[in-house]
Amino acid sequence: MSDCLVVGGGIIGLSLAYELSRRGVSVTLVEQGEWGGQASSAAAGMLAPLKEFTAPGPMLDLGMESLALYPEWAAELEELTGGDVQLSLEGLLTVALNEEEVQQLADKYRWQKEAGHSVHWLSNTAQVKEVEPLLTDQVQAAIYSPYEGHINNRMLLRALATACQLQGVKLLSGCVVSGIAVKGGKVIGIETSAGSLRAAQTVISSGAWVGMMLEKLGVSVPIRPVRGQIAAVSSVGIPLRTVIFGTTGYITPKKDGKIVIGATEDESGFQRDVTMAGLASILQGTMPYVPALHSATFLEAWGGLRPATQDGKPLLGPVPGWEGLSIAGGHFRNGILLSPVTAKSMADFVEKGETERLLPFLPARFL
Questions:
Q1: b/e for 24-45, b at 16 or more Cβ within 10 A?
Q2: Mind giving me the DSSP string for 29-73?
Q3: Residue 167 has pLDDT above 80, yes or no
Q4: What is the sign, positive or negative, of the torsion defined by CA atoms of 15, 301, 253, 120?
Q5: Would you state the pLDDT for residue 41?
Q6: In terms of Cα–Cα distance, which of 318, 336, 326, 324 is closest to 150?
Q7: How confident is the model at residue 38 (pLDDT cuts 50, 70, 90)?
Q8: Contacts of 193 (CB under 8 A, 6+ apart)
Q9: Is there a contact between 152 and 255 (Cβ–Cβ < 8 Å)?
Q10: Which residues in the chain belong to E strands, given as ranges?
């Protein structure tokens, strides 16, 4: 028996297990496939809350808080595991190629500046290309955000799995959950292909599969899978400096010799295959921004299922009516960004019952 069972070994489950184990909580982490094998590995590792969230509010606040946690969090992981997670917080560009996009970008810049965020307005082609010379001559303006960036999500996942192992988390991969165990109205654990597992607290963090897990109790939560397709090309001969966001795609230079480009969003049920239409959309959406991409060597493409919710906010906290059961899921395309703050906030709940930080995200809003 553990103090806490975490169901789902993606970025959120791994991060929560890591945080709880750091606090001396005994944890069993269960994953039906491979660690981070779903949405977490099918990502570009963006750490860009000012790009992701289009207005002030709880999501932007959560994203900014998580971004601020990343340097120390990543450094601790690297020190513990001896691995590199390739954290890069060296800035990014959100660019406009026509007058309509310039106006939309100017509106966004205005509220971000008024809210006190560190952003800079680049008002002409020369200013933008001074930051990123490989951008197209068609670029007209940009927001430069100097403290946002990205991380190598695959290296981060490996580091988290290693850290969990080093800190005594019981790791069960290839372990399928067949039921949720209940006694006297309280959830006491799960039934799995590896046998019965028991704990005082059970957290469901299984991404797009959260709904399937809760259905075992007759609980319906509005989390659905949205397929995201993404690709990578070689950076040889393409010395891109900066992450570039446009209206039709993003371009992320990595330290491992790749440039990650993406991404699509489509409702495909639980199908995660890469399609020709998806790949065409990625290429057509990114090449106009950096003409040098036309000659880039193609490396790979992959897909993952992002857990989306009705209101765009994750579900974090206790499941009403079921003592001992909580959710940490529904992060959609922001699981990598929000993993440190989710881990800390959910660990506060599991360890001390604190829910104040979780109020905008409680599952009770749907149940």
A1: ebebbbbbbeebbbbbbbbbbb
A2: EEESSSTTTTTTTSS--EE-HHHH--SSSHHHHHHHHHHHHHHHH
A3: yes
A4: negative
A5: 75
A6: 336
A7: confident
A8: 174, 175, 176, 178
A9: yes
A10: 2-7, 27-31, 46-47, 92-96, 120-122, 141-145, 149-150, 170-173, 177-183, 186-192, 195-204, 223-234, 243-246, 249-253, 258-262, 298-309, 315-318, 325-329
Distance, in Å, from the CA atom of 278 to the CA atom of 273, rounded to the nearest integer, reads: 10
The helices-and-strands tally (H runs, E runs) of the chain is: 9, 18
Q: What is the mean pLDDT of the chain?
A: 96
Nearest one of 3, 328, 38, 12 to 168, comparing CA atoms:
3
Element (H, E) at 256: none
- Spatial contact of 7 and 206, defined as CB atoms under 8 Å apart: yes
Mean pLDDT of 187-212: 96
- CA 179 to chain CA centroid, Å, is 27
CA dihedral over 151, 156, 159, 164, signed as positive or negative = positive
Read off the tokens for 179: 């039921």
**Nearby residues of 4 by Cβ (< 8 Å), 6 or more positions away:** 20, 25, 26, 27, 28, 199, 200, 201, 202, 203, 350
Quick check: helix, strand or coil at residue 280? helix
Whole-angstrom Cα distance, residue 181 to residue 243?
A: 46
**pLDDT tens sequence across 106-153:** 999 999 999 999 999 999 999 999 999 999 999 999 999 999 999 999
Tokens of 89: 């917080």
